Amino acid sequence: MISISNLVVQDNFSTSYVLVSWTLTPTTEDLGPYTFNLFRSTSPADADFSLLTSTDELSYVDDTVDLVKIAITYYYRVSITGPEGTVMQPVTATIYTERPDFAADTIVYSNNILLDVIDNPPILVVTRKRTGQQCPVCWDPVSRNVRKSNCTTCYSTGYTGGYNTPFSTKASFQTEGVQLSVDELAIAGQRLPTQGWVSNYPIINPEDLVVDHRNNRYKILSVQQTTKGRVLLRQIFQLQYLPATDIVYKFNVSGG
Ligand SMILES: [Zn+2]
Questions:
Q1: How far is the CA of 194 from the centre of ligand 1 (A)?
Q2: Does the N-terminal or the C-terminal CB of the chain have fewer CB atoms within 10 Å?
Q3: Which positions ≥6 away from 44 have C-beta within 8 Å?
Protein backbone atom coordinates (compact mmCIF):
# COMPACT_ATOMS: atom_id res chain seq x y z
CA MET A 1 0.00 0.00 0.00
CA ILE A 2 1.29 3.40 -0.92
CA SER A 3 1.02 6.42 1.36
CA ILE A 4 1.17 10.18 1.19
CA SER A 5 3.99 11.93 2.99
CA ASN A 6 3.02 15.51 2.30
CA LEU A 7 -0.01 17.53 1.17
CA VAL A 8 0.45 21.14 0.08
CA VAL A 9 -1.97 23.90 -0.92
CA GLN A 10 -0.55 26.84 -2.89
CA ASP A 11 -2.71 29.94 -3.17
CA ASN A 12 -0.18 32.41 -4.55
CA PHE A 13 -1.29 32.47 -8.22
CA SER A 14 -4.40 34.64 -8.30
CA THR A 15 -7.65 35.07 -6.45
CA SER A 16 -9.44 32.42 -8.50
CA TYR A 17 -7.83 29.09 -7.72
CA VAL A 18 -5.45 27.10 -5.55
CA LEU A 19 -3.17 24.19 -6.43
CA VAL A 20 -3.35 21.16 -4.16
CA SER A 21 -0.53 18.64 -4.57
CA TRP A 22 0.63 15.59 -2.70
CA THR A 23 3.89 13.70 -2.43
CA LEU A 24 4.13 9.95 -2.01
CA THR A 25 6.40 8.15 0.39
CA PRO A 26 9.12 6.61 -1.81
CA THR A 27 7.70 3.47 -3.40
CA THR A 28 8.47 0.88 -6.04
CA GLU A 29 4.77 -0.03 -6.44
CA ASP A 30 2.94 0.47 -9.72
CA LEU A 31 0.46 3.33 -9.22
CA GLY A 32 -1.88 2.01 -11.92
CA PRO A 33 -4.40 0.38 -9.52
CA TYR A 34 -4.59 3.47 -7.27
CA THR A 35 -6.93 6.46 -7.28
CA PHE A 36 -6.57 9.57 -5.14
CA ASN A 37 -9.71 11.16 -3.68
CA LEU A 38 -9.43 14.81 -2.70
CA PHE A 39 -11.83 16.17 -0.08
CA ARG A 40 -12.42 19.71 1.12
CA SER A 41 -14.15 21.32 4.07
CA THR A 42 -14.36 24.67 5.79
CA SER A 43 -14.28 22.96 9.18
CA PRO A 44 -11.93 20.32 10.58
CA ALA A 45 -14.84 17.99 11.50
CA ASP A 46 -14.67 14.66 9.63
CA ALA A 47 -18.36 14.78 8.66
CA ASP A 48 -17.97 18.11 6.86
CA PHE A 49 -15.50 16.96 4.21
CA SER A 50 -16.96 16.48 0.75
CA LEU A 51 -15.35 14.93 -2.32
CA LEU A 52 -13.84 17.37 -4.84
CA THR A 53 -12.36 14.89 -7.29
CA SER A 54 -11.03 11.39 -7.81
CA THR A 55 -7.90 11.35 -9.94
CA ASP A 56 -4.79 9.36 -10.76
CA GLU A 57 -2.76 12.59 -10.91
CA LEU A 58 -0.82 13.88 -7.90
CA SER A 59 -2.22 17.40 -7.98
CA TYR A 60 -5.47 19.26 -8.56
CA VAL A 61 -6.40 22.84 -9.38
CA ASP A 62 -9.34 23.85 -7.21
CA ASP A 63 -11.10 26.82 -8.79
CA THR A 64 -14.19 26.57 -6.57
CA VAL A 65 -12.55 28.33 -3.61
CA ASP A 66 -13.55 31.86 -2.67
CA LEU A 67 -10.28 33.68 -2.10
CA VAL A 68 -11.91 37.11 -2.24
CA LYS A 69 -13.93 36.58 0.89
CA ILE A 70 -11.46 36.89 3.73
CA ALA A 71 -11.04 34.79 6.86
CA ILE A 72 -12.17 31.40 5.58
CA THR A 73 -10.09 28.35 6.38
CA TYR A 74 -10.17 25.58 3.80
CA TYR A 75 -9.16 22.10 4.89
CA TYR A 76 -8.02 19.50 2.34
CA ARG A 77 -7.58 15.76 2.76
CA VAL A 78 -6.63 12.97 0.39
CA SER A 79 -7.61 9.33 0.59
CA ILE A 80 -6.23 6.55 -1.56
CA THR A 81 -8.34 3.84 -3.17
CA GLY A 82 -6.23 0.80 -4.03
CA PRO A 83 -6.42 -2.98 -4.32
CA GLU A 84 -7.02 -3.22 -0.57
CA GLY A 85 -9.84 -0.66 -0.45
CA THR A 86 -9.77 2.95 0.65
CA VAL A 87 -7.47 4.26 3.32
CA MET A 88 -8.11 7.69 4.77
CA GLN A 89 -4.88 9.55 5.04
CA PRO A 90 -4.11 11.45 8.21
CA VAL A 91 -2.59 14.29 6.20
CA THR A 92 -4.54 17.53 6.13
CA ALA A 93 -3.52 20.84 4.60
CA THR A 94 -5.19 24.17 5.24
CA ILE A 95 -5.25 27.64 3.77
CA TYR A 96 -6.61 30.73 5.44
CA THR A 97 -7.90 33.39 3.05
CA GLU A 98 -6.32 36.77 3.62
CA ARG A 99 -6.86 40.16 2.05
CA PRO A 100 -6.72 39.54 -1.71
CA ASP A 101 -4.11 41.44 -3.73
CA PHE A 102 -6.15 42.70 -6.69
CA ALA A 103 -3.19 44.74 -7.98
CA ALA A 104 -1.15 41.54 -8.29
CA ASP A 105 -4.11 39.90 -10.03
CA THR A 106 -4.17 42.79 -12.52
CA ILE A 107 -0.45 42.38 -13.26
CA VAL A 108 -0.90 38.65 -13.90
CA TYR A 109 -3.87 39.45 -16.15
CA SER A 110 -1.84 42.06 -18.08
CA ASN A 111 1.07 39.66 -18.49
CA ASN A 112 -1.29 37.07 -19.95
CA ILE A 113 -2.66 39.64 -22.43
CA LEU A 114 0.90 40.60 -23.38
CA LEU A 115 1.73 36.94 -24.05
CA ASP A 116 -1.36 36.72 -26.28
CA VAL A 117 -0.44 39.92 -28.14
CA ILE A 118 3.09 38.66 -28.86
CA ASP A 119 1.22 35.97 -30.80
CA ASN A 120 3.73 33.16 -30.52
CA PRO A 121 2.22 29.72 -31.02
CA PRO A 122 1.51 28.02 -27.70
CA ILE A 123 4.25 25.99 -26.08
CA LEU A 124 4.03 23.00 -23.80
CA VAL A 125 5.43 23.16 -20.31
CA VAL A 126 6.29 19.63 -19.24
CA THR A 127 7.16 19.38 -15.57
CA ARG A 128 9.35 16.56 -14.38
CA LYS A 129 7.93 13.95 -11.99
CA ARG A 130 9.40 14.41 -8.54
CA THR A 131 7.27 11.79 -6.78
CA GLY A 132 5.52 8.55 -7.72
CA GLN A 133 6.72 5.07 -8.56
CA GLN A 134 10.48 4.79 -8.66
CA CYS A 135 11.51 3.42 -12.05
CA PRO A 136 11.41 -0.40 -11.92
CA VAL A 137 13.90 -0.58 -14.80
CA CYS A 138 16.72 1.71 -13.82
CA TRP A 139 16.26 3.13 -10.29
CA ASP A 140 19.07 2.07 -7.99
CA PRO A 141 17.90 2.30 -4.35
CA VAL A 142 21.47 2.07 -3.07
CA SER A 143 22.97 4.96 -5.00
CA ARG A 144 19.51 6.69 -5.11
CA ASN A 145 20.08 7.42 -8.76
CA VAL A 146 19.26 6.06 -12.23
CA ARG A 147 21.46 3.29 -13.60
CA LYS A 148 21.08 4.14 -17.29
CA SER A 149 20.89 7.38 -19.22
CA ASN A 150 18.46 6.35 -21.97
CA CYS A 151 15.65 4.62 -20.08
CA THR A 152 12.32 4.79 -21.94
CA THR A 153 10.31 3.91 -18.81
CA CYS A 154 11.31 7.03 -16.86
CA TYR A 155 13.23 9.09 -19.46
CA SER A 156 16.07 9.10 -16.95
CA THR A 157 14.07 10.97 -14.30
CA GLY A 158 13.96 7.95 -11.96
CA TYR A 159 10.12 8.01 -11.84
CA THR A 160 7.87 5.88 -14.05
CA GLY A 161 6.41 7.98 -16.85
CA GLY A 162 9.09 10.62 -16.38
CA TYR A 163 7.03 13.76 -16.82
CA ASN A 164 3.61 15.10 -15.87
CA THR A 165 0.79 15.83 -18.33
CA PRO A 166 2.00 18.61 -20.68
CA PHE A 167 0.45 22.02 -20.04
CA SER A 168 -0.22 24.29 -23.02
CA THR A 169 0.56 27.95 -22.42
CA LYS A 170 2.06 31.06 -24.03
CA ALA A 171 5.65 32.17 -23.66
CA SER A 172 7.86 35.02 -24.73
CA PHE A 173 11.29 33.95 -25.98
CA GLN A 174 14.52 35.86 -26.32
CA THR A 175 17.81 35.11 -27.97
CA GLU A 176 20.75 37.28 -27.05
CA GLY A 177 18.36 39.89 -25.72
CA VAL A 178 16.37 40.21 -28.97
CA GLN A 179 12.72 39.27 -28.80
CA LEU A 180 11.79 37.00 -31.69
CA SER A 181 8.99 34.62 -32.52
CA VAL A 182 9.91 30.96 -32.74
CA ASP A 183 9.34 31.10 -36.52
CA GLU A 184 11.72 34.04 -36.84
CA LEU A 185 14.23 32.12 -34.77
CA ALA A 186 13.94 29.15 -37.12
CA ILE A 187 14.45 31.40 -40.16
CA ALA A 188 17.50 32.84 -38.44
CA GLY A 189 19.02 29.35 -38.44
CA GLN A 190 20.47 28.09 -35.23
CA ARG A 191 19.45 31.11 -33.17
CA LEU A 192 17.23 29.13 -30.86
CA PRO A 193 15.89 30.83 -27.75
CA THR A 194 18.15 30.93 -24.73
CA GLN A 195 15.66 32.50 -22.35
CA GLY A 196 12.03 33.40 -22.02
CA TRP A 197 9.18 33.90 -19.63
CA VAL A 198 5.77 32.46 -18.90
CA SER A 199 2.93 33.39 -16.60
CA ASN A 200 2.72 32.13 -13.03
CA TYR A 201 1.21 28.70 -13.72
CA PRO A 202 2.33 25.96 -13.76
CA ILE A 203 5.31 26.52 -11.49
CA ILE A 204 8.45 25.53 -13.36
CA ASN A 205 11.74 24.31 -11.96
CA PRO A 206 15.16 23.47 -13.35
CA GLU A 207 15.11 20.15 -15.28
CA ASP A 208 11.52 20.70 -16.48
CA LEU A 209 10.97 20.81 -20.25
CA VAL A 210 9.66 23.31 -22.76
CA VAL A 211 8.40 22.00 -26.11
CA ASP A 212 7.80 24.51 -28.88
CA HIS A 213 5.28 24.10 -31.73
CA ARG A 214 8.00 22.62 -33.94
CA ASN A 215 8.64 19.95 -31.31
CA ASN A 216 12.00 21.45 -30.43
CA ARG A 217 12.64 20.48 -26.84
CA TYR A 218 14.52 22.45 -24.24
CA LYS A 219 15.64 21.83 -20.72
CA ILE A 220 15.00 24.54 -18.15
CA LEU A 221 18.36 25.47 -16.65
CA SER A 222 17.26 28.07 -14.10
CA VAL A 223 14.14 30.00 -13.13
CA GLN A 224 13.75 33.45 -11.65
CA GLN A 225 10.36 34.20 -10.12
CA THR A 226 8.91 37.70 -10.14
CA THR A 227 6.66 38.25 -7.15
CA LYS A 228 4.55 40.97 -5.59
CA GLY A 229 4.21 40.34 -1.91
CA ARG A 230 3.44 36.65 -1.80
CA VAL A 231 1.82 36.44 -5.25
CA LEU A 232 3.80 34.85 -8.06
CA LEU A 233 3.54 37.12 -11.13
CA ARG A 234 5.69 35.47 -13.78
CA GLN A 235 8.62 33.14 -14.30
CA ILE A 236 11.73 34.01 -16.29
CA PHE A 237 13.76 31.00 -17.36
CA GLN A 238 17.01 30.06 -19.08
CA LEU A 239 16.83 27.29 -21.66
CA GLN A 240 19.10 24.73 -23.19
CA TYR A 241 18.09 23.25 -26.54
CA LEU A 242 18.13 19.44 -26.52
CA PRO A 243 19.32 17.70 -29.71
CA ALA A 244 16.87 15.31 -31.41
CA THR A 245 18.86 12.33 -30.14
CA ASP A 246 17.99 13.15 -26.52
CA ILE A 247 15.85 10.54 -24.74
CA VAL A 248 13.18 13.17 -23.88
CA TYR A 249 12.06 13.19 -27.54
CA LYS A 250 10.67 9.70 -26.88
CA PHE A 251 8.24 11.19 -24.32
CA ASN A 252 4.80 11.50 -25.93
CA VAL A 253 3.54 15.07 -25.48
CA SER A 254 0.33 14.66 -27.47
CA GLY A 255 -1.39 12.82 -24.64
CA GLY A 256 -2.13 9.19 -24.11
ZN1 LIG B 1 14.19 4.34 -15.74
A1: 28
A2: C
A3: 75, 92
- What would the pLDDT profile of 168-178 be if each residue is shown by its tens digit? 999 998 876 55
**Can you give the residue ranges of every domain in the chain?**
4-96, 105-128+163-250
CATH class of 4-96: mainly beta
Q: What is the pTM of this model?
A: 0.88
The alpha carbon of 145 and the centre of ligand 1 are apart by a number of angstroms equal to 10
Size (the chain), residues: 256
Q: Measuring CA to CA, which residue among 119, 109, 123, 130 is closest to residue 234?
A: 109
Report CA(157)–ligand 1 centroid distance (Å).
7
Q: How far is the CA of 32 from the centre of ligand 1 (A)?
A: 17
| Ion ligand 1 nearby residues (CB, 5 A) | 135, 137-138, 151, 153-154
Task: Please list, in sequence order, all residues whose beta carbon lies within 8 angstroms of the beta carbon of residue 163, skipping any fewer than 6 positions away.
Answer: 126, 127, 128, 129, 155, 157, 209, 248, 251
For residues 185 and 183, what is the distance between their CA atoms, to the nearest angstrom?
5
- Other C-beta atoms closer than 10 Å to the C-beta of 66 total 13
Using alpha carbons, select from 126, 127, 151 the residue that is nearest to residue 139: 151
